[in-house]
Amino acid sequence: MTTTTTATVAPPAETAPAGPRASWAAVLALAGFETRRLLTRLPVLLAFAVYIGWTVWRTRTSYEGFPALQDADRATQAAPLLVGLAVLLSANQAMLRSRRYDTERHFAVLVLPPWRRTVAHLLSLVPAVLLVAVCVTGQFGWEALKPGAVGNGSPGELLVGPLSVLLLGALGVLFARLSDSAFVAPLLLVVLLFFSLFAAAPQDGGATRWLMPVVDEYSTRTLPSELLGRPAAWHALYLAGLALSVALAAVLVSGEGAGARSGSGSGVGRVLRGRFVGNRGVPAGLAGAVALTLLGAVMQAGDVPAQTEKARTRYSTAPQDLQKCVERDGTTYCAFPEWTPRTDDWAEVVDRVRSLAGDAVQDRPLVVRQRVEARYGPTGDAAMAPLTDPNQVSVGTTWGGNRVPEFAVAVAGVLVTGKEAEAGPLCDGRLVTVMWLALAGGSDPMSDLSNIRLDDSTSGSAVVISETEPLSMTAAHTELVRELLDRPREEIGAKVTANWAELTAPKVTTDRTARLLGLDAPEEADECLE
Hints:
Number of strands: 6
């Protein structure tokens, strides 16, 4: 009898399911992999190269070396949008890579459900955002370290660039979860570019413009930082809430229903047929993020605060009540608190013009008063009325470049006529003396002459730009000024000093001015512009 022995083989022990710790370790590992892929994608590399190159090239000479930091912070916002668009495209393509190469089914054997993979892709955006934040900090820091920097920047304005990149990258991830089509991201880029151009056109529009990531307000004048009236902090909160809402929405729609597992149908169809993430924290977080977005959107849409409007009027109509004044060599310099370091630059110009004037005004006390027209907000460009008090000169809130010879002309005009209000309509021979006093002491008088004229010319008649009322040079004035600037400064200076009383007498003719300064009568026309 044959005995059959049956061996009992113990079943293999079940593999313990991966716990939350292993899942999150895998999320971080995938995020690190996707970060390297994202930062080495050609669109992202090109965008960063253009962004950094443009920033360095522009910042070298920006604001003529005299930045106001309340303007410099806003200048960091637009360029990061290029990086944001590249990140949007690259993040979207990264999310679709597994479907594009038909490797989606292999993820079923991993410890990462779709929503965790979405989290990993969202985390891969963070290094690009941080790199943009470093670039923004470097750009603003460069401006702040310039010797001529004044004013105060806003953290809310500086956050706009990095938050815009985060928002655009999250949009790329969300649209990859909503649709498998590779054409969605490029189409979204076109729509965003068109919408940004359309929305940026009416800069004087209402509150809807603040729904855009970047809201710039162009102006030729710089306002004190407390007068800007921009809801920078609320706008940063709006962008942060919107970026977080988009990111959590992408996680929420990363369902694992039948459609999602099978990979059949369109992306939107899979979302609708599948189920949302079961973690209750995600819907709650999304609700909180949407609430933050709405709070920021509502608060940033409000009108300019009443105290800001009052401050704008006060700065515009009674600057003397807000300024700090210092006296130096017979001249009193009155500046708004943020601009007090700039009085040394003003004093250099005043001393230079004084040194060329006649003895009668060498010791004349002057008051250089800083002024700004702020009642129309950051986009206002209204001209200021000239001062009517004797021996007072206006100076604006910008400096460097053309502003220096423009201020020199204002100082010379007051030394010659006694009042700023009388220098504006000046159209007799005294204008020749004014222009020579203003330009002769500069390092490149002919370039300064061109820069302060509206048409950048050095011949013929032209309008001379000013902080207040512009001056009008006839062709005869221009001819004489050019001849004077070609001659030795000491020679002309001696004649100006010797004939000061007659050169500055009202209604002195241009021909008489030429004879007093040793020049022939001008051949060009001597008719003032109307």
